[in-house]
Amino acid sequence: MVYSSHGGNSSLLTFLSIFVALAIALTSTFAGQFAKSALTLDEKLFSAPYSMTYLNTLFMIPLYPIYLLIKKNFTQTTVKTVHKDAVKLLEDRKGSRYPNWTILIAGLIILAGWIAPNYIFVVSLKFISVSAATSINSLNAALVFIISIIWLKEAFSWFKACGVLLSIAGVVLVSMDSNFTGSITGVILVLSCALCIALYNTTFKKVFGDLTFSQVLFFLSLLGLTNLIFNTLPAVLMIYFDLDRIVWTAVPWTAIFANALLATLFNISVNFGIAILNPLVVSIGILMGIPISAAVDILLRDLQAGLTILIGGVLISLGFCLNTLPFDEWIGKRNSVVDKRKHQAV
């Protein structure tokens, strides 16, 4: 799908960008809030972060089939054409399909890389406020920059380097306010989550490069199937050995399914923003989620935000902006325009 920058399509693109940014902000905020509600309602009756992570991943299975149905019924594109593009995910650069054992091993590794940060984040919500977790977790953008320079050999950027420093300073300040943030255990868990996400994202970029929207949804559905086949037994064992505590008559089903649905919508919004619109839309959406989460915590959970929280939140937001917005690209384009005008003047 390609949008023109002229006329009605430009208005549609603007509307979609605003809609997706708001969707990312709201789904990330309320998915976290529902997860926290489920886990802190009564820990003696329900405390099952692994089972919640397992369920959330199952919700991704129908994404690709739904996408195929939408393409078939509302566009002129054939299912065969869409699927032909999607399965390129399983092919090497020469167009040959990877052996089944390679796909299996890769699937298990990717599943572990997906489950780990999501599980850690859900566990952290037992110890930390949602807004603090969201703020600290945005540090993953700074970690991606560091890992990308070391591993992917990407160009150094002073903007992103400053963003790293601001993010770290913001995390330190947020961590100092135990009344709003929670315990240091939660902070450490979210930092671990941010590191896992950064490693996952850079590894994904290294292996797959840039994917189309159909390939991303195909990937997420395959990930959900891998979770169903290989992660069901571990999830059952977690419940059996009481590592996940579940009293079935007291399960907060509303909060659990609301969290799973919103987490799925968040994943769709993020990947739609990256593949169809612009990664900038995703960055803005995640950034918008930080103050929205803080507002919800203050209004609905009666948390009091001190000066250190406010300053820390601002520093983290500024750091996130510097690490995700393409300042180097913008300045490069501006310099090119200036140079072009100088040549024209001569």
UniProtKB/TrEMBL annotation:
Gene3D superfamilies: 1.10.3730.20. Keywords: Membrane, Transmembrane, Transmembrane helix. GO terms for cellular component: membrane. Pfam families: EamA. The chain crosses the membrane at residues 12-31, 51-70, 101-121, 127-151, 158-176, 182-204, 216-240, 246-268, 280-300, 306-325. The keyword Ion transport does not apply. InterPro entries: EamA_dom, EmrE-like, Solute_c_fam_35_mem_F3/F4. Residues 18-176 form the EamA domain. PANTHER family: SUGAR PHOSPHATE TRANSPORTER DOMAIN-CONTAINING PROTEIN. This is EamA domain-containing protein.
